[in-house]
Design goal:
The protein is mainly alpha-helical. 76% of the residues lie in helices and 0% in strands. The protein contains five helices and no strands. Helix 3 runs parallel beside helix 5. It is elongated, with a radius of gyration of 18 Å.
Amino acid sequence: MNQTAIFWPVIAQAILTFIAYGVMYSRRMQAVKSGTADVRAFKRRNAEPEASATAANNILNQFELPVLFYVVCLSLYVTNGASYVALLLAWLFVASRYLHAYVHMTSNRLLHRRPTFMIGFVAVVMMWLWFSLHLLAVV
């Protein structure tokens, strides 16, 4: 397998982060233009309108669990451990993050958001286990 293939899910995850920034920016601009928020409302998170706050919170989420994803992908690449299994888990993680972000920035229903988070969580844990097994095989 071409080891660089592991970077396509990484790129897709980065794109999701950029999308979340775009959604937040758009919602903040709409809030200011409509008069539902003053620019100063964005100084403190507790004063931000709910629509843009959910996008801002989603951006924070993109720098939590995905950090472990980025590190394991780089680690797999550096150690020549990017396999079809790792790639499948990486794409599963990214798909779950897109679903999680969609739910978070639309309905924000925990009933739907939690399962999408758990799928991604399990996928990244499995990637770390796969990486650990790869390291044991290399030694």
